[in-house]
């Protein structure tokens, strides 16, 4: 179990690097170069492959092996970083290369999620999802600190360092072949019988997973997967549970820069301390789910409620800035502490939610589980990014106070959704 967890952690670490590059480093870099809030937010549209990866996920399930897909995607990310090293952020090709990097990273995500579901037993889901969330966040945090690296070694060497990380990862993957991966249905622990695991015609779903990937069979596949037990509720929840939280987290660093705080201080609090708090929250969420055997839905409900408190604090700070034009020492501290606290509760909720997602996907037929999980993960990414892309334009037009008030309101709906959680997800 420990070796599998370590490998999953490493895979999710390198997967988090492109996200941290765009979510942590580039927004502050672009804002300090004079880009508008709307432009900074629109830059995140280059993450679109994460919304669309469900369209090619069946290819990963059906062709080749997941380990081959993993190696190919890591090699492609290595090449993309080499190309970015020779590209200036003002060049037209820069956006295309970032987009390509996201395509390769999203493909790696599909493959590694399939590996995780085939190698982890039911009792290991909590630990596995902790490794997933923490590894991804550590990678994102490491990439978020690229501003410090870029200032010291320059743009070209920064991307060559990223390329070297992917090259080493490829070499390690070439020597790694986990058991029970791509072995059909053998070795896959199914927590329920087929009659309990999913609704509808099971034979139709299995046939849809094994037919040639023609248009009709793909449509049948997606239709059947949507009837897997709990899918619609989980998809709706993951689409909405991060809307407000991610909106506030993406907007507050820009607010702090505009209020006169130095970019290095903002990077330290939001990049280092904020991500450290988020990682601590992810570990705590994994502990609650794995060691204390608390149902992930209960964990998510408790901390979705608690994260309202720091969001209220941040709304108060922006309102005070609007009234007085400056921040007091107390307000300055409240904004930074509120961000860290929001990161912590968000980390707990994320680990619990990813465990819910994997519980649901394990109800799908083994040959289709990677595709099913990818569909849920796509909804999760779309929910996280939807408001962050739009909120920059809202803040540009209406100001920070209405934007954060909107984020706060959107954080209330997940509480209602969790109270209607299907009973199948309420067992610890």
TrEMBL record:
Membrane-spanning segments: 7-30, 36-57, 158-176, 266-285, 297-316, 336-358
Main location: membrane
Alphabetic keyword roster: Membrane, Transmembrane, Transmembrane helix, Transport
Tree of life domain: Eukaryota
A Pfam family hit: MFS_1
SUPFAM superfamilies linked to this entry: MFS general substrate transporter
Alphabetized InterPro entries for the sequence: AmpG_permease/AT-1, MFS, MFS_trans_sf
Presence of keyword Transport: yes
Annotated membrane topology: Multi-pass membrane protein
Statement: the UniProt record of this protein carries the keyword Membrane: yes
Location in or out of the cell: Membrane
Protein name as catalogued: Major facilitator superfamily domain-containing protein 3-like
Species: Priapulus caudatus
Lineage, highest ranks first: Eukaryota, Metazoa, Ecdysozoa, Scalidophora, Priapulida
Gene it is expressed from: LOC106806449
